[in-house]
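Give me structure tokens for this 248-residue protein.
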Amino acid sequence: MCCSGRERDRLSIQPVAYIRTDFKEKFGIPRQPGLVPGLTGTVEFEPEFRTPDVVRGMEDFEYLWLIFGFSENWDYSREGEPEPKWSKLVRPPRLGGKEKKGVFATRSPFRPNGLGMSAVKLLRVDTENPENPLLIVGGADLLDGTPIYDIKPYAAYSDAHPKARSGFARPEMKFLEVVFPEELLRKVSEEKRQPLIGVLEQDPRAAYEKKPGYVYGMKFASYDVRFQVRGDVLQVVDVVCSEEQHIK
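Here you go.
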């Protein structure tokens, strides 16, 4: 019996790479790529694709599209392959988590196929090991260990539409003033300081769960950063290195 068109159109995909970032949990990840340019990530290819041939010519592009999977939103409780958790209606953070929109009118991670896309800046192609090239990218909004299913070059002439209407996803953003005591800032390695401050300025809290004076904890790189927010001011109250936590 010949399979139906719908059955033929089903696609099984496997990761071509995984990305390494400073985000060990979802809390604190910027809600869109590029909002914190200082954030860096490393794309590590799977063995089948560890050849310079797959990245030949990539240096000619400034940005890349990463097609990835929202792997933390998959349902592993069922038998067989894990399935993405999704909902027809979602509450976008931009609307304060109070108004519902259709899933396909949003960039919600809770999608039928669990796929996302991020435009990241290509900082360099690391060919120190020529048989296993690495991609160093900037502005990534991805959890550490996120599977990458495809990589495509960003073409400004067709991919950029700066005058297009953006619906409720308006570009206006309100940043917090970050108060980071010097004695706590010194606990953070120098190369991680500005990216961390940039993440805190974005207000990591969920739009619908903002408790004045509550001490929040955010894992970033090898640090557990604890902070409070009062009004438009975010105060860092403690920074604990993971090595310190292990000792305790």
